[in-house]
Amino acid sequence: MIWQSILLVIVGLAGGFVVGSGFVAFITVLDIVPRLTQLIKGFKYISWFQRALIYGAVTFTWLDFRGIVLNLPSLFSLIFGAFAGMFVGMLAAALTEVLNVLPIFAKRLNMANAILFLLMAMVLGKVTGSLFHLLVYIDK
Amino acid sequence: MGNSVYLRLRNRHYVRFNEQITLSNIAQIIAPESYETRIKNLVVYQVTEEDQHLIVIDLMRIINIIKKEFPELEVRGLGKPEIIVEILTSSMTKKPNIYAVVFVWILLFIGSGLAILNFHHDVSMVEVHRRIYYLITGVEKAKPLILQIPYSIGIGIGMILFFNHVFKKKINEEPSPLEVEMFLYQQNLDQYVVLNENKENRKRQ
């Protein structure tokens, strides 16, 4: 019994270790933290932001696994949703599909002047697609 | 020592058909005063109808031309060993076709909408939203709209933040990732052109 528990602890720890480092690697590759620090010129606080990522990952894993219900008013989910959406938006923008398609359009189709216009197409497409999916596409 | 000419090729030069390229067009020059104007006006290349879109001019070729004209001078090249000259054709100076832009706009709009749908399905976003809504409020709800609508709008805000563009205004002056990506793409193209279009490089043993 005790050996089984020890084994489970080791397996759990190892799994978490790998997933955690994978998560950090993913965020690092996409350069989201440097991008945000550049935007607010907050290079001094970069270690705070790193810690925010770690605390966030651990806290929400814990809440989810333990099934801890916070019983807050639904206004809080509005705030949560807005922040979650912004983060996913940054992820989507950072993915190379977006970053690599636009320069090629600009060069090949001679559309360098229209690039902002095309960027807005992608942004609005994401918002519309997401709204469509969540409000219309899914059934109850 | 008084006979040295220093050359530094510029990054890029644009010409039209049948124009002459003089040395001062494509390079910064430091030369002895008595030679300066003559060297600056040396014709390095005559663009003809046969030339294609891009011309690569090698530094060696320029040194050769100067040496032929002024054998007594010593020429030193600094920086990049070649320059890319782009020929401006009428189609390039024209504005892009508005129909083409609208077509691409719709293509990207629908494409990125589809991509976000696929992404949400891939990561079971709907399930996660229901779970989060339950964890926060303690109420089970199939469509937690108060979470999902701000989430959707947030996606747009996040993308704009990342690209540093609020429609046409810039939040700060540093280049955005898109501008950096455009620059890198152009640089890769240039590198390819320099290696593959340079006539001097093509001569094999």
Automatic annotation (TrEMBL), chain B:
UniProt keyword list: Membrane, Transmembrane, Transmembrane helix
Keyword Membrane applies: yes
KW NADP (keyword) present: no
InterPro entries reported in the protein's UniProt record: SporV_AA (IPR021997), SporV_AA_N_sf (IPR038548)
A Pfam entry, by short name: SporV_AA
Stretches that traverse the bilayer: 98-119, 145-163
Domain Stage V sporulation protein AA: 3-88
Protein name: Stage V sporulation protein AA
